[in-house]
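Suppose a colleague, Dr. K., hands you the sequence of a protein chain of 124 amino acids and asks what its three-dimensional shape might be. Before reaching for any lab equipment, you can write down a predicted structure in token form. Begin with the sequence itself:
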Amino acid sequence: MPETSNYVLELPTELASRGIHPRFHVSKLWPHVANDDTLFPNRRLADPYDWGVPDDAEWIVDEIIGHEWNGSRIRFQIKWNLGDTTWEPRSHCDELEALDRYLEYHGVSSIDALPRKAISGKRR
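The predicted structure, expressed as tokens, is then:
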């Protein structure tokens, strides 16, 4: 029987150099379960965070697949080239070519002309 409910992990040097402590409570640890390609053939698990990538690295946007208004503020649903999907504020999207394509898809010339109803999507 363990003497404590904490585990000490062997962390990669990138994590240790960032000050991540190697001791974790058992409630914070979960076993990795690989995807079952038979049951979920198209499901792609998110890539683990690359701790070696600088904070100011640029990522490639595949396309904008939706938007959502909250009063006068809008945020966009971004599909990244690595497969992840996140919601991003307007300020993160203003200079994207993907935004130009999204506006064209909706037949509008400005963000303010986008529909204000529920999330409007793009073909996925």
